[in-house]
From TrEMBL:
Domain of life (superkingdom): Bacteria
HTH crp-type domain segment(s): 149-221
GO cellular component: cytosol
Name by which UniProt lists this protein: Transcriptional regulator, Crp/Fnr family
PANTHER family per record: CRP FAMILY TRANSCRIPTIONAL REGULATORY PROTEIN, DNA-BINDING TRANSCRIPTIONAL DUAL REGULATOR CRP
Amino acid sequence: MTTSRPPETLARVGLFRSLTPDEITRLNARCIFRRAHAKDWIIDYQDESTDVFFLISGSARVMIRAISGRETILREIDGGAFFGEFSAIDGRPRSASILAVTDVTIAKMSAAVFLETVTQHADVCLQLLRLITGQVRMLSNRVNEFTTLAIRERLIMELLRLSRANPADPEQAIVSPPPLHADLAGRISTRRETVTKELSAMEREGLVRRGRRALTLVDMPRLMGAIRAAEEAEDFGAASKLK
């Protein structure tokens, strides 16, 4: 039995949704398509290359590795997205590393072709600006969480982001498949052992329930209340410093 491979075309990339099929075909010819295996590093932090990469299929992860060896996960990238645009725009070294989470198909485009495409097509330029703005907002929120919330509240925030509503119970949410403790630690900039300890405590308190197929957020009102209480405490502390 043979399986068909996903088509190697930029038509799957949302950034180019306004381009005609002929324009996509011409862009395809100016890219190099290749595959990478899960756990392969596609881009290294501080690498001086300036190419832009488009994820045709699979998933990847944006990460920063500190001198201490601790890894922080900034965001996940799925098929149809792209990365590497910062270096293409300003010519500076890479600001993060990119790890293939699954086997991926990617298209590599030179900085010159990328900038030419962006400047020649108004909708592509607008989409790029909106995506970069969204990344800046996301990173600002993450910095705020890292500097104002304790480990437990950061963990709750990440679980809320990963969850979906439980149709059988409006007070519950589900994270499926259950995330690895190491991945959660990377997302909230802490150690795997700390995540394990916090999840065990939250399970004893009836806040979460762990299973093989899913992690259930059992009591959403209490979890949301913990976040609000932490934010209110931070606001009160900030106001007190101003007096």
